[in-house]
Amino acid sequence: MTRFLQITLLALILSACASTRFVCPDVPDIPRPGLPSIEASEVQCLTDETWNKLVQRERARREYAEELEAVLDAIGEECQ
Length: 80
What we know:
Elements: H1 2-17, H2 48-78
């Protein structure tokens, strides 16, 4: 039992000496790409259901990209 206590105490002492260091990654400033515009005549052949799916998909992609930008901005602010 004494040996167990000694090992436990040694482990606690050694772990107190350990430190965590946060390393800031280089976060590049990536500009948003220019997206091509789409004319109404180009999508007239789509059904309403397909059009709605396309709009939902593009909205989800935009929101995802905006969320990633917010994360990168927060990392950049933490590291300054």
